[in-house]
Amino acid sequence: MTGEFAVEEFALADAAELAALHMQVWREAYAGMISQEYLDGMQLEPRIERWRQRIVFAADTEARGEADGVRRRSRLARHRPTGRIAGFCSVGAARDDDAPVPQELSSLNVLAQFHGSGVARQLVDATLGERAAYLWVVRQNARAIAFYDKLGFVADGGTKHDDDLGCDEIRMVRQNGRTADA
Asked: Which residue intervals define the domain N-acetyltransferase in the entry (predicted)?
């Protein structure tokens, strides 16, 4: 059903909707996995401003193109029938000093109502493609771990604790592109 979604670049006009979607996805996906205090404390207005900054940054870094084989790309998926944003994905240079590969899938967020629609895979294809990459995922997020596994990501033993979110995360790595059907 991926024909239901148009993959687009981020636009400043989408900042408020992206901020609201980001909060909704986190509240849907992470309830019981991360700090409820953090989830309850999320506020829309500051997030809109951060999204404006993120959109400008994404356009700037993407315009510079690839460097050292690292793609910097952010995309959203718009649900064609409703015009609503269904999710977003961003990839870029590794943010960790001890990164196993230079490319990081830094965010993939899709509204729960679109789970199973193929839009998450469409977003990953549009941003990351078949490239080697790594990501961090909340240890208890079995749905996300299973999805990333289908894309060829494997837990490599890397772990970290996020004090702000009150959760443990595991690192998953894909060395040479997809290895299973998703």
From this structure: 5-177
Distance, in Å, from the CA atom of 125 to the CA atom of 130, rounded to the nearest integer, reads: 7
Q: What domains are defined for the chain?
A: 2-174 (3.40.630.30)
Residue from 86, 81, 66 nearest 14 by CA: 86
182 pLDDT exceeds 50? no
pLDDT in tens, 120-156: 999 999 999 999 999 999 999 999 999 999 999 999 9
Cβ contacts of 90-95, under 8 Å, gap ≥ 24: 90/58, 90/127, 91/127, 91/128, 91/131, 91/133, 92/61, 93/67, 94/70, 94/134
